[in-house]
């Protein structure tokens, strides 16, 4: 998937024009917005539009926020996320968008995130998203899958 398509897909997963006041046409726009903090609506939109991925501890670690904190934040949706929460939420949406493009549907991408992967030493991709090193492993694995290298 080319860069503009990837950026558009990530923005849509986070709520698109319903959530973001300004258009994001290039990665620098996303960078600037992440520095300011993602709107709380973005995380709410992302989580509420997951098709099969359960709201589990794994998802909480992936986006850097406990379910309890998320529930409290729903009462103040206009509050922006912290820099770390914004970055982790964006990265989760980016990986979900990339897996969706590769596997053909968001449902398949969510299932893939939940299944142990041979190329990740039988780890579930969702579990690796809690650290920068794990995120890099998942991104590298997705790249290998894109090029047909499965192990």
TrEMBL record:
Top-rank taxon: Bacteria
Entry coiled-coil feature ranges: none
Organism: Labrys monachus
This protein's name: Toxin-antitoxin system antitoxin component (TIGR02293 family)
InterPro entries assigned to the protein according to its UniProt record, in alphabetical order: Antitox_Xre, Xre-like_HTH, Xre/MbcA/ParS-like_toxin-bd
Signal peptide region: none
Domain Antitoxin Xre/MbcA/ParS-like toxin-binding: residue ranges: 99-148
NCBIfam families assigned to the protein according to its UniProt record, in alphabetical order: TAS_TIGR02293
Domain Antitoxin Xre-like helix-turn-helix: 29-93
């Amino acid at each position: 998937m080319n860069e503009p398509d990837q950026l558009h897909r990530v923005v849509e997963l986070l709520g698109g024009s319903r959530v973001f006041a300004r258009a994001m046409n290039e990665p620098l726009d996303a960078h600037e917005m992440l520095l300011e903090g993602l709107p709380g609506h973005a995380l709410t939109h992302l989580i509420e539009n997951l098709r099969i991925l359960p709201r589990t501890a794994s998802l909480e670690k992936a986006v850097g926020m406990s379910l309890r904190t998320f529930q409290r934040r729903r009462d103040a949706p206009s509050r922006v996320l912290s820099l770390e929460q914004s970055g982790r939420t964006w990265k989760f949406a980016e990986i979900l968008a990339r897996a969706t493009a590769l596997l053909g549907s968001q449902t398949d991408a969510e299932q893939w995130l939940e299944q142990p992967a041979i190329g990740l030493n039988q780890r579930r991709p969702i579990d690796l998203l809690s650290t920068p090193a794990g995120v890099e492993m998942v991104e590298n694995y997705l790249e290998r899958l894109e090029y047909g290298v499965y192990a």
